[in-house]
Specification:
Blueprint (H helix, E strand, L loop, with lengths): L5 H6 L8 H6 L8 H9 L2 E5 L4 H6 L6 E7 L5 E2 L1 H14 L4 E3 L5 E6 L1 H13 L25 H16 L6 H6 L28 E3 L14 E6 L7 E6 L18 E7 L3 H15 L10 H8 L1 H11 L5 E2 L14 E4 L5 E5 L5 E2 L7 H12 L2 E4 L5 E6 L4 H10 L10 H5 L1 E2 L14 H17 L9 E4 L13 E7 L2 E6 L10 E8 L3 H15 L6 H8 L9 H4 L2 H12 L1
Parallel strand pairs: 6-7, 16-17, 17-18
Antiparallel strand pairs: 1-2, 2-5, 3-14, 4-5, 4-13, 7-8, 8-9, 9-10, 11-12, 12-15, 14-15, 18-19, 19-20
Helix pairs in contact: 5-6, 5-12, 9-11, 10-11, 12-13, 15-16
Bound molecules: protoporphyrin IX containing FE and iron/sulfur cluster (SF4).
Length: 576
């Protein structure tokens, strides 16, 4: 029988059921079949195998070491100590003794066996979070402002992130039936109407994020919808919507490319969810369902044009008034690490978490330190899009105790880190991600040590320079708007992208198709040496690059697929 495509699998899934329940009950089952492996994503899990063991197991004639990654949805990255401890506890009992804060403010648990999957999903729901729609062709985790400043605007924005999250949960009862021992509907009815998504859900995943300028800590322009509140008198009056951001692309496939979201319209705050629904249903009805590589909203907006898209959205908003988008200016995507006052007499502490990985090693014990802080001081936690964390709601008297726990477990002091290191990030890749072409998380520490040495040598340790790495071009660590990015092509080989922005508002372009991992610091040094020699007083690397390079307002596809030098040579030849 021909393999079904994802649209057919969704169509025939009986509201995302497939045969998930029967596989879970089958004795000795270790993994799902191909169709269910697509459906399990909508429930918040990826089916994976331990890639470190693949060759050995194959040589021994054995099956893959099947396992699951489970992703908790955490709107705005905000969770209580009890919720954090529930994840920590599962990491010890049912997973691989590690947790990972993700670049979209969620938490991932790894290495879960099929027999434990239901227990993990159940426990996540029992602590008041969920995994439904954390992956799959639906609205994913809603990102929002992580920095825990206490004032009415920040509180309202967090409430909006939670409301958006609830509004776009898939309505299927399959989730509660399969994982939570929920009741079946009377008469064995299984198909539940999905009022927003419809029978086939969306053509592809869909991401929403909110930021309060000047801080763009949720990196909103990389999302399908970015929201920015306007609060002229200290109260939110409305939101500007940006649409059509998204980063995934494929090496060498010039039809695929990253896009930044563009301004669409402004709407009063009581209609912001209506406006999101209008955008989402436009993508549902007009998005490309024939080719998943071209199915994201960014291609619809780019192909039809922003004017067409705006008219379509407005026509769906019927009597709701909209205005032209308002001006938005960002200064940084960085986090406020260290101690800061919250604004309500309490304090928050931003802690650097390299690559979001919470684990204990001989050198540093993040897992124990965070567990002790959560158990003893019961702070709130706020995961940032740079995979760092804020502990908030802390009394001034408890600051020293928290610092002591961090010190005892050798968590690096902020003062010892370059500014670039504090925001640098790498995706997971090997050994869990099926799509990784090169190492990312496991290689990044060493690469960054080399780059840190360069930064110190050039006196740039306090400069905001955004650096990111991924194991493949899909872009999970948002490489394409970083100042420098290394995008995996093959083991030990990376494409070098340069020229994004530490404000998250410009795309990088392809500097070199292939750079060896060991050569990355030297390549960065070459470019940064030019910067130190030629920068104007106080100029950031982002602004220096913008001033000295011609890359145009809206880069075309070649920007990501053809090296700068080759394009320049071609242009020069054409000019002669
Ligand atoms: C075509 C595009 C993409 C595909 C097929 C894809 C697929 C995957 C897979 C298979 C994983 C699991 C890896 C693991 O944790 O073991 C993953 C992780 C993740 N992806 Fe993607 N992804 C894509 C693009 C993106 C983009 C553009 C973003 C965000 C801008 C993103 C955000 C994430 C996040 C936050 C994780 C969790 C791990 C981390 O923080 O690095 N993904 N993705
Ligand atoms: S960027 Fe590629 S290698 Fe990295 S987690 Fe995403 S899909 Fe995997």
């Amino acid at each position: 029988m021909a393999t079904k495509n994802v649209e057919e699998i969704k169509d025939q899934s009986r509201s995302l059921r497939g045969t998930l329940a029967s596989t879970l009950q089958a004795p000795n089952a270790t993994h799902f079949g191909d169709e269910d492996a697509q459906l399990i994503k909508f429930h918040g899990s990826y089916q994976e195998d331990d890639r470190d063991l693949r060759n050995k197991l194959k040589a021994e004639g054995k099956d893959k070491a099947w396992q699951f990654m489970v992703r908790s949805k955490i709107p705005g990255g905000f969770l209580t100590s009890a919720q954090y401890l529930a994840h920590d506890n599962m990491a010890g009992r049912l997973s691989t003794e590690t947790l990972r804060f993700t670049t979209r403010q969620g938490i991932q648990l790894y290495g879960i066996l099929l027999g434990s999957l239901k227990q993990v999903i159940k426990e996540i729901n029992a602590c008041g979070l969920t995994t439904i729609g954390a992956c799959g062709d639906v609205v994913r985790n809603t990102m929002s402002v992580a920095v825990p400043i206490s004032n009415p605007v920040y509180d309202e924005v967090q409430r909006l992130a939670e409301e958006i999250s609830r509004t776009f949960y898939p309505k299927t009862t399959a989730y509660s039936e399969i994982w939570l021992d929920g009741e079946k509907l009377p008469d064995g009815k299984e198909d539940v109407e999905e009022p927003i998504y419809g029978r086939h859900y969306l053509p592809r995943k869909f991401k929403i994020a909110i930021a309060i300028p000047p801080r763009n800590d949720a990196d909103i322009l990389s999302n399908d919808i970015g929201l920015v509140p306007h609060f002229p008198n200290g109260k939110v009056e409305g939101y500007t919507l940006f649409v059509g951001g998204g980063f995934g692309m494929s090496h060498g496939q010039t039809a695929t490319r990253p896009h930044l979201a563009q301004p669409l319209l402004y709407v009063a705050k009581e209609h912001v969810i209506d406006a999101c629904i209008a955008v989402i249903t436009t993508q549902r009805d007009h998005g490309n369902r024939a080719d998943r590589k071209l199915a994201r909203l960014k291609y619809l907006v780019a192909n039809k044009g922003i004017e067409w898209f705006r008219n379509e959205v407005k026509s769906r908003l019927a009597n709701i008034g909209t205005e032209a988008p308002k001006e938005v200016k960002f200064t940084t995507v960085s986090d406020l690490l260290g101690w800061h006052e919250q604004g309500n007499g309490k304090w928050f502490r931003g802690v650097w978490v390299p690559e979001g990985r919470i684990k204990d090693t001989d050198e540093v014990q993040y897992r124990t330190a965070f567990r002790k802080i959560a158990e003893k001081y019961r702070p709130h936690l706020h995961i940032t899009a740079n995979t760092n964390v804020y502990f908030s709601n802390i009394d001034a008297n408890d600051k020293a105790g928290i610092d002591q726990i961090l010190d005892e477990h050798k968590i690096p002091a902020i003062s010892g880190l370059t500014q670039a290191r504090q925001t640098a990030h790498a995706c997971v890749s090997l050994p869990t991600c099926n799509l990784g072409l090169a190492e990312s998380e496991r290689a990044f520490g060493k690469v960054m040590n080399g780059i840190d040495a360069v930064l110190r040598e050039l006196g740039l340790e306090n400069e905001e320079i955004l650096i990111r790495m991924t194991g493949c071009p899909n872009g999970c660590a948002r490489p394409y708007n970083a100042d420098f990015a290394f995008v995996g092509r093959a083991p030990g080989k990376y494409a070098l992208y340069v020229g994004g922005s530490h404000r998250g508002d410009r795309l990088a372009g392809l500097k070199e198709k292939v750079v060896l991992e060991a050569d990355i610091p030297a390549k960065v040094k070459e470019i940064l040496s030019d910067f130190t020699a030629n920068r104007q007083t106080g100029e950031s690397f982002t602004d220096y690059w913008g001033r000295t390079q011609e890359q145009g307002e809206v880069p075309n596809a070649e920007h990501f697929h053809v090296e700068f030098a080759e394009r320049a040579a071609r242009l020069a030849a054409a000019g002669n």
